[in-house]
Every structure is written in C-alpha cells, then in structure tokens.
Amino acid sequence: MELRQLKTFRTVANLLNFHQAAHVLHYSQSAVSAQIHALEEDLNIRLFDRLPKRIMLTEAGRRLLQYTDKMLSLAEETRSEVTGGKSPHGSLNIRIPETLAAHRLPKLLKPFRNQFPKVQLIFSTCAYHSLEQDLSKGIYDLAFLLTESYQAPNLSVKLLGVEPLVIATAPKHRLARKKAVYPKDLEGETFLFTRTECSYRRNFERMLAEENVETIRIININSIEAIKQCIKEGVGISVLPEITVRKEINNKEFIPLNWAEGHMETASLMIWHNDKWISPALNAFMSMAGDFYSNHTNP
Question: Are 123 and 100 in contact (CB under 8 A)?
C-alpha cells in the first residue's frame, strides 16, 4: 500500500468518477485505474463496484476511506517533523477563481516558487457550489472565492481584500454615455455571466429582483475572456471585477456604466477546513498569499 495510491483512492472515492479524479490529480485516467487496481490487488479486496454508468464504494472501500485521511495527514506531519528545519515541500491542491488566477496569482507565484521550490502547486477553477464538500473531503487543501460572504460550520474564512466590480459595455451601447444608469434601465438587456466564478452574480440578480427588473436575458459562458470578446461584438453587457477589464477601459474599448446605485464590490476570501492539518507548505502559501494580497492589490 503506497501513499500515492491512497491519495488516488481518496480522490476517486470522494468524486466517484475516474475521469474527474484524473483531472483533479493531473493523471491520465488509465494511471488512476491502474493505481486503484494495484491497491485492490495489494489488499486482496474490491474497493469499488463498477456499474455500467457509475462506480460505488464497497463496504471495504468505505472503511478504508475512514482511515485514508488520517494516514495521509499523519504521513505529511511525520515527514515535516522528521525533516525538521528543512524547507516546506509536498503538494497543494488549491481552488481559485479565474479572476484571481489570471490577475493576482502570477505575481504571487514567482516569489513563492523562488522561496519554496520543493512545493508542488496544483490549481483548479473555483466554483461556489460543492466548495464545502470538496474541502471537507480533502480533495482541495485551500480555496479562494470572490463573493460577498461565505459561512459554513466547518470552514475557516479569512478576508483578504475587496475587488471593485463594474458593469462593462461596448462604447456604442445605448447606456454607455448615460450620466446615471438605474436598475430599470437594464430592462431587456442581455447579460453575460460565467457560472464558475459569478458568486457575486447572485447579489446583482437579487438587487434587480428587488427593483422588479425581471426581463433581462442571460447567457452563461464559462470564460471571462470569451465574455469580453462578446462585449466587444455587442452581444451583451456584464458585471465583472474591474481588474479583468481595466486594460480595455483604459484603451476605451469598454465603458463602465455610471451605476446610480453606488459603488459595487465583492470580497476576496481564503477558505480552509477547520480540521485540516496546516502543513508547513500550506502555512507558507497562506501566509504569503495574505501578505501579498494586502500589499500588492490596488482599489
């Protein structure tokens, strides 16, 4: 029984999907299947029932899963204690929104990699849904989220800062030159949103509902870059973090609407499970992320 096999088993057991587990682990699906098969051979017991369209844990698989987190955490803690003063190492699985990954993360990664070259970082797109479950199951070590607030009984949440939001339009849009844009002015508009990041979308939609603005049309596109291209082509408008369209606004390619309801913003949060062992590698990343965000973000 190898630690890498246990890590793979835990991921497959939590997701109950070999393909998704391969994506999270950055393995091929055949490699994931081979590791699970080797673990079953070693234990001489079947851990999963392979059904035509899904897999399920066997009773033995459920028992093993109860111990897997403890064994993996203990292994990492033991390695850290034994190596003593050696620099942090190991791997971190982190969920992060596209906005932060594209516009905040790159400036953090270079100094982190220089200081902690032995830490392997694996990033995945962060979505609001399933976040608590994925952190609780240990699929991810840490998550970042753009949302007004986030509460869950077993999670710790740290506010890193805020990201200003704008309603971005093409220069020729009918509302682009309007001195004050009110919710009712958005009647009949087409809004472009991304499902994977738009936690702040719910707050905007709730505000429109309170103002009885119900006839907007919505197109879901899971890419901010694709949304920006659609805005340029006049397909619709979008609520986006200002940092994602700052270049286009400065170049007069986009116009931020003069929103009469006041300044819009969303919180940037760092989230982890209360029972998660904070390894030296994780502690180093969390500490540097917090310091970097406060020192290098502009309002």
Answer: no
